[in-house]
Amino acid sequence: MEYRKFGRTGLKVSAVSLGTMAFGRWIDEQASAEILDLALDSGINLVDTANVYGEGASETILGNLLKERRRDIVLATKVHGRVGEGVNDSGQSRYHIFKAVEDSLKRLKTDYLDLYQVHRFDPNTPLEETLRALDDLVRQGKVRYIGASNYAAWQLAKAHGVSALHGLHRFESLQPEYSIISREIEKEIIPFVQSENVGVIVYSPLGRGVLSGKYRAGEAPPADSRLAKGEPRLEQLLKKNAIAIADAVRPLAEERGLAPAQYALSWVLSRPGITSAILGASKPEHITEAAKAWNERLSAEELDKVDEATLNIGNRETVLS
Ligand SMILES: NC(=O)c1ccc[n+]([C@@H]2O[C@H](COP(=O)([O-])OP(=O)(O)OC[C@H]3O[C@@H](n4cnc5c(N)ncnc54)[C@H](OP(=O)(O)O)[C@@H]3O)[C@@H](O)[C@H]2O)c1
What we know:
The chain is about 40% helix and about 15% strand. Residues about 315-320 have low confidence and may be disordered. Helix 5 links the parallel strand 7 and strand 8 (about 170-175). The longest helix has 15 residues, at about 95-110. The protein is globular, with a radius of gyration of 19 Å. The chain has an eight-stranded parallel barrel with strand order 3-4-5-6-7-8-9-10, surrounded by four helices. A two-stranded antiparallel ribbon has the order 1-2. By secondary structure, the chain is α/β, with parallel strands linked by helices. It has helices at about 30-40, 55-65, 95-110, 125-140, 155-165, 190-195, 225-230, 230-240, 240-255, 260-270, 285-290, 300-310; strands spanning about 5, 10-15, 15-20, 45-50, 75-80, 115-120, 145-150, 170-175, 200-205, 275-280. It has a single domain, classed as NADP-dependent oxidoreductase domain (TIM Barrel, Alpha-Beta Barrel). NADP nicotinamide-adenine-dinucleotide phosphate binds near residues 22, 205, 209 and 289.
């Protein structure tokens, strides 16, 4: 496993990290345990969750499973999504952040978070309020680093400006979507994070499973797949020529001697500005297959071939989760 510098910080994270959105939503604790053990045993040190995954079940399962391994990993979670019926049970007010962090710490059975991320931009709360609340959590020792997810480049630039103006900790990382299917971050975000030395941990590197080749046009999805179980964001992605893009990439993967999922992951890790790719695994074999190839990198020539095969295919708008 390659370990990469987490933006400008001194922290190092694995080039492939484990996403746990499936824990408690699509798979139970026992299946999650197998995946977590395999991931950590094969060198993954960054584990990503969110307070809303499985309505808290993902954090609870991680809390039950990590035990003594907790101190050896970089544990990342998120705040923003609605977690209750109350008017203040979502967003990034100081009120909600202080409440949400205690709930996450309790579920995760830990007294600190390595990375606390805002799940998306909150237009209803002043950035200064959010950043001051997060800065307080860092100073209290409850949080090591702060990050943002699903931000536009201008939103991150504005947040960095607010942090600099008030002497507050800044967002050291961004978590956007990125795969051969969803490449919008290349326009504004990648140049910005390279200029400001921000860590980029990207989600859905396999296009939520589409780039594994498991979905075929005109055929029913495999019964044990996320599409069959119902995932609205995946359905949206499929409307945007995702299967045509996966079909166009498959021969390139074959030429390289990699499975389509391995090739899609290598592509992300071979692109500039990426710190880590957050792999979603719902079965142990997803980790073992990825592990066989996660040190593979594509050459400039191979990256060009992917562009030639895919860039002129249809509507490639971002699908935000
Ligand atoms: N910040 C955000 O807004 C946001 C949004 C989404 C995700 N995330 C984070 O990113 C993580 C990863 O997201 P993701 O699950 O969408 O990523 P992904 O890696 O693009 O997709 C994972 C899915 O691909 C399929 N898969 C994986 N390996 C495979 C293989 N070797 N062969 C065949 N199929 C394979 C599985 O689908 P099946 O389960 O259908 O078999 C799996 O659930 C999440 O767990 C979460 O931590 C963050």
